[in-house]
Amino acid sequence: MFAKVAEERSFAGAARTLGVSVATVSRAVSRLEDRLGARLFNRTSRRLALTEIGHSLAERATRIYCEAEAAENATREMSSRPRGLIRLAVPMSFGLRWVAPLLPDFFRLYPEVAIDLHLSDAVVDLVGGGFDAALRIAVLPDSSLVARMLCPIAPLVLAAPAYLARHGQPRHPRELNGHHCLGYAYRSQRDIWRFTNGEGDEESVTPSGPLRVTNADALVPMLLEGLAIAELPEFMAAEYLADGRVAAILTDWSLPVGGLYFITPSARTRPAKVAALAEFFIQRLSEPAWRS
Question: Which UniProt keywords apply (predicted)?
């Protein structure tokens, strides 16, 4: 406020420029003078003049004001057009299969945006970890404030034809207790397969087998070699089902269907770069290829 008064040579002019009252500007300058222990202006009823100390301070104050104004304008521009760094957390297998192949198109559309892609199956703390956004696969309520569901993702229980030829086809979930079933460590509610059927029956199975992993891709070799049964999300299972290397079993039963969510810490403060990424994923992942 002192810088604007020095520039305008008027409390009223500074107040108009800053959009505040004359009294607000006057009180602010008085507080500054009290803190410095010196007068900055000589005031008369008709004119306002800088004192010697006021002259020495005005140049620096004006420079500080201009730097602050430039910083504010740059920040406003950054929030209004997509530019800058996005820290994005994505599950490992999904990110490698379905996010990384989309990034060239995103960067062609938004060349001023950079992405720090964090790939991990562990659920990250968006706020504590300093992330701008995340793609998360889970059973979550859809919230317009912090989460946007892009598409459903169903889990499938799979076995290779060779495994079924040797061990037979399970007809009921409880029969899985006699089979080698591979485990996944990052399941949201312990490593339990919770089945339901069309008649409302429920059955819970704890997979028991020679391998438990923190990334579902590590299950695939055992599955394809016909050594065990595994549960995989459909975005992973689709290619193996399509060429017949595995078959879905217990198809009269289903596991809880989750969804692919785009999550941000707060929708109200979402900058343009994050909004652009959200819209891009909505366009590209709402009708993904694996569902067809």
Answer: DNA-binding, Transcription, Transcription regulation
